[in-house]
Specification:
By secondary structure, the chain is mostly helical. It has a single domain, classed as Helix Hairpins (Orthogonal Bundle), CATH 1.10.287. 89% of the residues lie in helices and 0% in strands. The mean pLDDT is 89.
Protein backbone atom coordinates (compact mmCIF):
# COMPACT_ATOMS: atom_id res chain seq x y z
CA UNK A 1 0.00 0.00 0.00
CA UNK A 2 2.84 2.41 0.77
CA UNK A 3 4.35 1.86 -2.68
CA UNK A 4 0.98 2.68 -4.29
CA UNK A 5 0.74 5.87 -2.24
CA UNK A 6 4.33 6.77 -3.10
CA UNK A 7 3.61 6.15 -6.76
CA UNK A 8 0.48 8.27 -6.49
CA UNK A 9 2.53 11.03 -4.89
CA UNK A 10 5.09 10.91 -7.69
CA UNK A 11 2.43 10.85 -10.40
CA UNK A 12 0.56 13.76 -8.83
CA UNK A 13 3.79 15.73 -8.43
CA UNK A 14 4.61 15.24 -12.09
CA UNK A 15 1.08 16.23 -13.11
CA UNK A 16 1.34 19.38 -11.02
CA UNK A 17 4.69 20.24 -12.62
CA UNK A 18 3.04 19.86 -16.03
CA UNK A 19 0.20 22.14 -15.03
CA UNK A 20 2.62 24.80 -13.80
CA UNK A 21 4.64 24.58 -17.02
CA UNK A 22 1.50 24.90 -19.13
CA UNK A 23 0.30 27.91 -17.16
CA UNK A 24 3.71 29.56 -17.45
CA UNK A 25 3.66 29.12 -21.23
CA UNK A 26 1.09 31.93 -21.41
CA UNK A 27 -0.46 30.45 -24.55
CA UNK A 28 -3.31 28.88 -22.58
CA UNK A 29 -6.83 30.24 -22.89
CA UNK A 30 -8.40 31.67 -19.77
CA UNK A 31 -10.93 28.84 -19.63
CA UNK A 32 -8.21 26.20 -19.90
CA UNK A 33 -6.08 28.06 -17.34
CA UNK A 34 -9.00 28.02 -14.90
CA UNK A 35 -9.49 24.28 -15.38
CA UNK A 36 -5.78 23.67 -14.88
CA UNK A 37 -5.74 25.87 -11.80
CA UNK A 38 -8.71 24.01 -10.32
CA UNK A 39 -6.99 20.68 -10.95
CA UNK A 40 -3.80 22.05 -9.44
CA UNK A 41 -5.62 23.03 -6.26
CA UNK A 42 -6.99 19.48 -5.94
CA UNK A 43 -3.53 18.01 -6.49
CA UNK A 44 -1.93 20.31 -3.92
CA UNK A 45 -4.54 19.22 -1.36
CA UNK A 46 -3.88 15.55 -2.09
CA UNK A 47 -0.12 16.03 -1.83
CA UNK A 48 -0.53 17.97 1.41
CA UNK A 49 -2.68 15.18 2.86
CA UNK A 50 -0.04 12.63 1.88
CA UNK A 51 2.71 14.65 3.55
CA UNK A 52 0.66 15.14 6.72
CA UNK A 53 0.06 11.38 6.87
CA UNK A 54 3.78 10.71 6.40
CA UNK A 55 4.65 13.22 9.14
CA UNK A 56 2.19 11.57 11.52
CA UNK A 57 3.74 8.17 10.80
CA UNK A 58 7.22 9.55 11.49
CA UNK A 59 6.05 11.12 14.74
CA UNK A 60 4.50 7.82 15.83
CA UNK A 61 7.73 5.97 15.05
CA UNK A 62 9.71 8.53 17.08
CA UNK A 63 7.35 8.17 20.05
CA UNK A 64 7.43 4.38 19.83
CA UNK A 65 11.24 4.41 19.84
CA UNK A 66 11.23 6.59 22.94
Amino acid sequence: MVKTKQLDYQVLSMELEGIVATLQAESTSIEEALKLYERGVVIVKELDDYLKHAKNRLNKISVDMG
